[in-house]
Amino acid sequence: MAQSATPYEIIVLGAGAAGMMAAIACGEEFLARGQTLPRIAVLEKNRQPGIKVLVCGGGRCNLTNAGDIDFLIGQFGRNGRFLTPALRTLDNLGLRSWFASRGVPTHEEHDGKIYPDSHKASSVVDAMVQRMRELGVEIHAPCTAEAVTWNSSSKLFNITTSTVQTFTSQILLIAVGGQSYTRMGTTGDGYSFAKALGHRVITPRPAIVPLLCKEPWVTELKGLAVQDVAVRIEAPGPLPRLATGKPEPSINDMMFTHFGLSGPAVLNISEIVAELLEKFPEMTLRVDFVRHLDHEELAGVFRQWHSTEGKKLVRSKLAEIIPQRLAEMFCYLGNIDQRQVCANLTARQIQQLIERLKGTEFTIYATRGFKEAMVTAGGVRLDEINPDTMQSRINPRLFLAGEVLDLTGPSGGYNLQLAFSTGYLAGVSIAHQLHENAYGNS
Ligand SMILES: Cc1cc2nc3c(=O)[nH]c(=O)nc-3n(C[C@H](O)[C@H](O)[C@H](O)COP(=O)(O)OP(=O)(O)OC[C@H]3O[C@@H](n4cnc5c(N)ncnc54)[C@H](O)[C@@H]3O)c2cc1C
Hints:
Elements: E1 2-3, E2 8-13, H1 17-32, E3 40-43, H2 51-55, E4 64-65, H3 69-74, H4 84-89, H5 92-101, E5 106-108, E6 113-116, H6 121-134, E7 138-140, E8 145-151, E9 156-161, E10 165-174, H7 189-196, E11 201-207, E12 211-213, E13 225-234, E14 250-256, E15 260-262, H8 264-267, H9 270-276, E16 283-288, H10 295-308, H11 314-318, H12 324-333, H13 347-359, E17 360-367, H14 369-372, E18 375-380, E19 385-386, E20 391-392, E21 398-400, H15 414-439
Parallel strand pairs: 1-10, 2-3, 2-10, 3-7, 10-21
Antiparallel strand pairs: 4-6, 5-6, 8-9, 9-10, 11-18, 12-15, 12-17, 13-14, 13-16, 14-15, 16-17, 19-20
Helix pairs in contact: 1-6, 1-15, 10-13
The structure holds flavin-adenine dinucleotide (FAD).
The site of flavin-adenine dinucleotide has 38 residues, from helix 1, helix 2 and helix 15.
């Protein structure tokens, strides 16, 4: 097996959002000091860098969110504070101006989501790859890191790979992502690397993942998106805490699919559901489709339809407050004929419709698992990482960044910002460490 001749100063495992940004930040830090660039190698499992970034936001890449730092921190729930130094080093404005300076201007859309003006994730990846090349970063792809060891006598990391080459480096950054969307190369390798180097890992769990439900009528509505619903979880006993920090009820849009439920309102609480399904065979989601009307106001609406709009079809009037296909389904489920007019609505039918509109129950029995989860909850324990540097508290030459850490945000651009910010901070910190080693500065 071939050994790399001279050790690299830095090896980055994973050319994803965090790994690429770390290599760039480190190189740029050296450049800013007018110093010779260090030897940096990025090892990537896929044939090309940034494959997962390419699928983000449906190929358009929702690279961050417009909220201020406190808002961004709040999205990461119980672990959000860990991110403060990383976000202060590279926040969403800094990220946007970095991409703008590299020819990728961005704009804000619905819910503060930020996208490149090109509407192409490839422009984000191309800009990063181009910058790495300018900085002389070696990209080895495909090259899967298979095992990582630390040699305390030589003070070097050894990385065996799927190629004939074994790499050695003074500093190692683990940025191989989580365990979600496994076909993109993210198969949880970082957890075993971190464990081999002495770290502990919070059990990974699928998050931002679609849910399977039992109600057969749901599949009839596949492809239908319903805006601004409120989703509540009903389960025996107290609910687990949500790492993503999104409060319950989850208010956003939801989507019916050929297997169950998806869309941000569902995806953002799917992590809790995944945890509950480890204990219970099934649990209930209750969806309020008309959250701006309380029960009494809704009853008033039906009274008004009954008295002043009696000749109008029930399904047509319902379609004024919920999507047409859902209105027709609710009529069908409530045994209301498609031709029934409002004047003929019985008190029982009205009661049933109100119950459906304000709290349809969905029986959830599974998630779509890691295969379809957008992110992984759990990961390398944060109390073993210094948030000011992203440096391991166990081995000061080891750094970790991105989704491999026990940090998860909801959908909306937060997870890429997390990867970019922690990657950037790791890159800058690595540059400082190399500088201190070389010049003995404290
Ligand atoms: C379909 C989908 C859509 C998404 N959309 C958005 C969105 O619009 N906005 C948002 O904020 N987030 C989105 N996310 C989440 C986002 O992609 C991740 O949070 C983010 O990419 C994590 O960055 P990372 O650098 O930590 O890991 P990744 O970007 O996953 O990069 C890790 C890299 O490491 C490589 N790797 C893995 N194991 C090894 C190994 N052993 N050796 C070498 N290389 C290895 C992988 O191939 C990968 O390229 C989406 C996720 C999915 C699946």
